[in-house]
């Protein structure tokens, strides 16, 4: 039996009466880019900091190569860490910042110089070795922080919302660099973010956190196409949740009756989480299509049309007063129908019923 490279087993963390993380278990293969995705307070950073050794678990175990690391102090776990704030030493040059973790490990001077040059090349900052952090842009500072974290060849790199302080364009540029660096180094990365688009861009797999638990783990495509829970369906991608007045289960699918009497058959059905909730039909805005008035479809009124370049975003209202969104080509049809009713339809297999 193959021992997982990194293993989180029954991890639980409490702060007094507050449960921050509750019974999280996860196995991470060597070289994977795994993202912890979820809203603020969902437990993702708490889990990351426990792996780093900054927080002690209330219960459970954390293992690397089958060996528990709970008794190992943070500075001996040989784990790299990149924070939201760059945490560079302001009085040290770029080269000296990168060299710092090597000096404290007693590396030889020639080895340090060689490694610093290699790290500067990796993050594409050749020629910046003598500059101070204050002379760099935010994106450049984060690259230095990344180079410093990788300088001593850690088997695991932890990244806690490292790009949240950057503007959108720069964030996307650094995302490309992080993905490239991961592919070139093969380091195992655990990455924390609340930005679903960032998670989709970077990750091999995503663990979706909610209220201290992991709701689903999978590739971005799997989470988008086959969400296991209503929370995942609403958190990954854009979603419409239509009210359902009646449900009849047929194996793994269901027949759903909407409030206007429209019948939807063959919808993938998901059981609820034990909480009282009205049945809802999730359909992506991109899955909707406009159909002719004479065709079968959901009657809606167009309330607003926004041109977005290659697509249009259309706000619709159902006959029972619920607002939903359409996203895609075909906005001109909606624009011509602003004063009256139009119809939209979708493939039932592309929707999900949560009840």
How would you sum up this structure, described in words?
By secondary structure, this protein is of the alpha+beta class. Helix content is 25%, strand content 34%. It has nine helices and 21 strands. A six-stranded mixed β-sheet has the order 6-7-8-3-9-10, sandwiched between helices. A hairpin with a 2-residue loop joins strand 12 and strand 13 (253-257). Helix 2 crosses helix 3. It is elongated and about 80 Å long.
Describe the secondary structure blueprint for this structure.
Layout: E1 6-15, E2 18-28, E3 33-37, H1 44-52, E4 59-64, E5 67-68, E6 79-82, H2 94-104, H3 109-122, H4 138-150, E7 156-160, H5 168-185, E8 188-193, H6 196-202, E9 205-210, E10 213-218, H7 220-225, H8 230-235, E11 240-243, E12 246-250, E13 253-257, E14 263-270, E15 280-283, E16 289-291, E17 298-307, E18 312-318, E19 323-328, H9 331-335, E20 341-345, E21 352-354
Task: Kindly summarize this structure in a few lines.
By secondary structure, the chain is of the alpha+beta class. The protein has helices at 44-52, 94-104, 109-122, 138-150, 168-185, 196-202, 220-225, 230-235, 331-335, and strands at 6-15, 18-28, 33-37, 59-64, 67-68, 79-82, 156-160, 188-193, 205-210, 213-218, 240-243, 246-250, 253-257, 263-270, 280-283, 289-291, 298-307, 312-318, 323-328, 341-345, 352-354.
